Please model this.
Amino acid sequence: MSIDTQVEFSKEIGPNWFASVMGTGIIANAAVGLPLYGTQLTNIALVIWLLASSMLMILLAIKIIQTIIKPQIIKRQFNDPVMAQFFGALPMALLTIAGGTILLGQHIFAQDTAKTIAWILWVLGTISGLLTAIIIPYRHFTQYEVRGDAAFGGWLMPIVPPMVSAAIGAMLVPYVESITLQQTLLYGCYAMFGISLFCALIIITMIWSRLAHSGSSGGARVPTLWIVLGPLGQSITAVGALGSVALFVVDEPIASSLNNMAIIYGVPIWGFALFWSILASLLTLRALRKKMPFAMTWWAFTFPVGTCVTGTTQLARHTGSTVFEWAAIFLFVGLICAWFIAAIGTMKGIKGGNIFNNPTRTVHIVSRKS
Model:
């Protein structure tokens, strides 16, 4: 990895910090629906959801204050072709907490209050997510200067939020009173599913091309390879949740077709996610042997794996397969381990203060093969 040692650093909070909210909140969402043990984990999931919600409020407050006091920081972050990608983390953080509110909010609030909060978070997350999915790629096409070996997992961050909206939107469909509005929301979620899916396929291809032609950076950018699992796992989750809801919202044979899509689409994508996780593991181990430093990118080990837990849970429900049930549990254990690794690294970084250092101008990370 090649970094200009003359780069100046500024102490600030970037949008990438909201990945910690995503990685924490997904644990609660995954725990509640976990096969075999989900009901036993409700209280633990509630505590984790409250922790993630608190983290969201604290980070939002800090970011708002930072933007008011030093507006040049967010402007610089928005103009940085690397940091700008992570503006997609905020919409996904909002949507993750929205999902937890639907699943666990009734333990804290009245049911109507919980639904209202979930709707507000979903609407805010969906609108801001669609904006990042449009604005960041547009700026990528027209303004950001990128190298031929620049493609990395972070490019997926601004285009994945609509997929998260689709998955959480499926949970909200039953709370819409009009059947016409239910169908509209259902098809709207499928449309958002398509936005993220096709963008993700393009970007994953570009990441593969970069790895094949230029290799890996071997540095703190390597964990972002795990972000590839995000759109894969979340798409399985979304298509499964939407298929289940479709049975009660649309007529046959469309309802059964959409429900069967959960298996027809989900199982092959699950296979590729497993395949990619092996490649990402090997590349991560390789980077660790080269003493890969801790960075906020390590939170990429959490949310993407969490979406694979929820996606595998959907496959377990639709297929009734014991293999998928235990696979979901195994992945959940991996998610917990990944969270502790990222959380401990973050706390050490906060204590040392170095984690707040962000370059004041774009740093080009060079990929190379051994």
Summary: The two ends are 12 Å apart (CA to CA). The longest strand covers residues 9-11. Confidence is low (pLDDT under 50) at residues 1-5.
